[in-house]
Specification:
The protein has 14 helices and 8 strands. The chain has helices spanning about 5-15, 30-40, 50-55, 60-70, 90-95, 120-135, 165-175, 205-215, 230-240, 250-260, 270-285, 290-315, 330-335, 340; strands at about 20-25, 45-50, 80-85, 100-105, 140-145, 180-185, 220, 260-265. The mean pLDDT is about 95. Strands 1-2-3-4-5-6-7-8 form an 8-stranded parallel beta barrel, surrounded by 10 helices. With about 350 residues, it is α/β, with parallel strands linked by helices. Helix 5 links the parallel strand 3 (about 80-85) and strand 4. Bound molecules: zinc ion.
Length: about 350
């Protein structure tokens, strides 16, 4: 199957009332783990690369690895997404490579650290939307600022300093025309999200629900949404790791989000934990091993297990065969004639 527009993938998720995991990749084994999980659970999927991933793997390696996934798994709809683009140029380069979706994170200035003004965010996001939609490419924007830092990107802090204002979210969506909107509700990037199991004082699900009521046709995106399960932390620490105790976003809170307009859930940390735990276990218990396959194979299997579980929990499992991809040129026409500006490709529930 050719790569699919993320807009189509999320519109279908809205129709079906489920969420879609967006999993970060840097290398071949992670892409293989995601695809094995997608096949196992029959799930559509978003594969995403941060700027750091594009630099680590080099653009053309990563692009062709994801393309290989679409060739090997023709039955699985895959959207290829740029995670946290920091500038128009970053998003333009992803689109020109062949990504079917980009995130313009204008909540931060181009340095990826300093919170920007609302007007700056609107201006740069609108510029990306105009360029992307002309080419049938989906755009995710961000309003409010997430906590933490990942891949050198982020403002730091707890995630509660810049919680999204619902009025601003509405104005932002209307003025930019984004397809999907990342909102800040107290979550942070990285492993250290919460110091205890989060409640409503630190994880603002009420804000998410308020935004969805006012923007029912904009797909909401939860970032920093790994659950950071204790069993994955334990494996790492059991085999010589030194993770401090930490809590992520409980799956039941994500499921509440999915019932209230969340269509894309970003997961990276859980996969990193699973792979690192599996690698540590081999190196710790079998110190004579030196063939990378001896630890990359269990690492890949550990990640597949986490991804398949999330696909089931988010509800995307079983939906890979629901639809055929609409060619990107057709999607571009839908943006140009205004049909996609005012309504989803399919009616949201
Ligand atoms: Zn993010």
């Amino acid at each position: 199957m050719p790569l699919v527009s993320m807009r189509q993938l999320l519109d279908e998720a809205a129709k079906g009332g489920y969420g879609v995991g967006a999993f970060n990749v840097n290398d071949m084994e992670q892409i293989q783990a995601i695809m094995a999980a997608a096949k196992e659970t029959n799930s559509p999927v978003v594969i995403q690369a941060s700027r750091g991933a594009r630099a680590f793997a080099q653009d053309r390696f990563l692009f062709h690895l994801i393309l290989a996934a679409s060739e090997l798994y023709p039955e699985i709809p895959i959207a290829m997404h740029q995670d946290h683009g920091n500038s128009f140029e970053t998003c333009k380069s992803a689109i020109e490579l062949g990504y079917t979706s980009v995130m313009m994170d204008g909540s931060l200035k181009e340095d990826g650290k300093t919170p920007s003004s609302f007007e700056e965010n609107v201006a740069v996001t609108k510029r990306v939307v105009d360029f992307a939609h002309d080419r049938g490419v989906t755009v995710e924007g961000e309003i409010g600022v997430l906590g933490g830092v990942e891949d050198g990107h982020g403002a730091g802090g707890s995630g509660l300093e810049h919680v999204t204002d619902p009025d601003q979210a509405v104005e932002f969506a209307e003025r930019t025309g984004v397809d999907a909107l990342a909102i800040a509700i107290g979550t942070s990037h990285g492993a250290y999200k919460f110091t205890k199991k989060p409640d409503g004082s630190v994880l603002k699900m009420d804000v998410l629900i308020a935004i969805h009521k006012r923007l029912p046709n904009t797909h909401l995106v939860m970032h920093g949404s790994s659950s950071v399960p204790k069993d994955l932390q334990d494996v790492i620490n059991q085999y010589g790791g030194k993770l401090k105790e930490t809590w992520g976003v409980p799956v039941e809170e994500i499921q509440l989000g999915i019932r209230n307009g969340v269509r894309k859930i970003n997961v990276d940390t859980d996969n990193r934990l699973a792979m690192t735990g599996a690698i540590r276990k081999v190196l710790w218990t079998q110190p004579e091993k030196f063939d990378p396959r001896d630890y990359m194979k269990p690492a890949r299997e550990a990640m597949q297990k986490v991804v398949a579980l999330r696909m089931t929990q988010f509800g995307q499992a079983g939906h890979a065969g629901d639809y055929a991809p609409i060619p990107i040129e057709e999607i571009a026409k839908g943006y140009a004639d205004g049909t996609l500006a005012t309504q989803p490709l399919v009616a949201a529930k």
